[in-house]
Design goal:
By secondary structure, the chain is mainly alpha-helical. About 85% of the residues lie in helices and about 0% in strands.
Length: about 120
Amino acid sequence: MAAVSWLILLCTYPDFARWQAEGFALHHEAYTRRVGWVVGPLLLAQLGGHACLAFVAGRGFGLGLVLMCWALTAAWSVPCHRRLQLEGPTSPALAGLIRSHAWRTALWTVLAGTSFTQAAG
């Protein structure tokens, strides 16, 4: 998720500002639907894996980070996406979306580092 998150933060979301206002809602909806097919299974696998680590091995730090990412997504990023859908690429919601995603990217990066450290033993 860290790699996907960095790609979205550095490439995808900044490009939203370059999209044409005409048809933006249609293209944004298509983007969110398609990206959901990519990130949805990754998010569920990540949640399941860290839940197992928490309950089987007593390693709950990763699960806490995953849950923080989910909370940020639900409370901040999803409302920004909804507002952007309605208002278009010039909406102030785009800056909010990028800020919210920067926080999620930081958390997923810490989580990736933690996961690699735990896997290395």
